[in-house]
Automatic annotation (TrEMBL):
Protein name: ABC transporter permease
Pfam families: BPD_transp_1
Subcellular location(s) of the protein: Cell membrane
Cited PANTHER family: ABC TRANSPORTER PERMEASE PROTEIN MJ0413-RELATED, ALKANE SULFONATE ABC TRANSPORTER-RELATED, MEMBRANE SUBUNIT
Topology within the bilayer: Multi-pass membrane protein
Gene3D superfamilies: MetI-like
Entry keyword set: Cell membrane, Membrane, Transmembrane, Transmembrane helix, Transport
Native organism: Streptomyces neyagawaensis
Principal location class: membrane
Keyword Transport: yes
Family per record: Belongs to the binding-protein-dependent transport system permease family.
InterPro entries: MetI-like, MetI-like_sf
């Protein structure tokens, strides 16, 4: 078997694994709702018909794009804050001892509860929605970064010290690279939280966005349109997950290669 054939078979296998279960769930949904007369559970064929009408026109620019922009802004800001604070807390025992009780206090507060509080000082614009996303996404990134920094191999740390590798070079080549698998794990967890908080933030005093539109459909009893919005959220989550996995495989190629080598010596 040639290398090209092996690569193609591997890609086909990965595609089947990624799309197999969603395809089964769609089939179950289709047949379970076929011929449904329930006002609140319309047939999937009706939902798909509304999907094309609702989300391929003006709403794509007025609702989907603003939601994705808020999601990207909040997620990236949470990544910067989480990794930055995680590096400081993970490398300093004193800072960790001082901040840990406060961090545990704020981490225990569900982000949706903070929405009314955030609205008091951030208003009801995009800033509020971005802050809500950050307030929930930052924790898995921060905590995983701290654990990743604390788990840096002592032998590698001593080696860097012996060769005089300090400052930014040590931070980049040792600390960040050693902690990167845990950082990426935290970012993967934060992605699903970001999507949830994006929708929740848009349900409060908003004038556009996916969350706002879905609630408006529900309040006006446009049930197929409402379900089409829920379906769109699921598809967006699935697409973002695939994109994240692609980026992870590129960034952590060395780590996955190392694990494969350890499993198959």
């Amino acid at each position: 078997m040639t290398r090209t054939t092996t690569t193609v078979l591997t890609l086909v296998r990965r595609a089947l694994l990624a799309l197999g279960l969603p395809a089964v769930l769609f089939a179950v949904w289709w047949f379970a709702t076929a011929g449904s007369t329930d006002f609140y559970v319309p047939p999937l064929s009706t939902v798909l018909g509304r999907f094309g009408e609702v989300w391929t026109g003006e709403r794509l620019l007025t609702d989907v794009v603003p939601s994705l922009a808020r999601l990207a802004a909040g997620y990236l800001l949470a990544a910067v804050v989480g990794v930055g604070l995680g590096l400081v807390i993970g490398t300093s025992r004193v800072v960790r001892d001082v901040l840990e009780p406060v961090l545990e206090l704020f981490r225990a507060i569900p982000p949706p509860v903070l929405v009314p509080v955030i609205m008091l000082f951030a208003g009801i614009g995009d800033t509020m929605k971005v802050i809500v996303i950050v307030s929930g996404c930052v924790w898995p990134i921060l905590l995983n970064t701290v654990e990743g920094v604390r788990a840096v191999d002592e032998v590698l740390s001593d080696t860097c010290r012996s060769y005089g590798i300090t400052g930014p070079s040590r931070l980049w080549h040792l600390t960040l690279r050693s902690a990167s698998p845990r950082i990426v794990t935290g970012m993967r967890q934060a992605l699903s939280i970001a999507i949830i908080l994006m929708v929740i933030s848009e349900m409060f005093a908003a004038s556009n966005g996916l969350g706002f539109t879905i609630v408006q459909f529900q309040r006006s009893f446009a049930i197929p349109e409402m379900w089409s919005g829920v379906l769109l959220l699921g598809l967006l989550g699935f697409a973002l997950s695939l994109l994240f996995r692609f980026a992870e495989n590129r960034v952590l190629a060395w780590y996955h290669g190392l694990r494969r080598a350890q499993r198959n010596p």
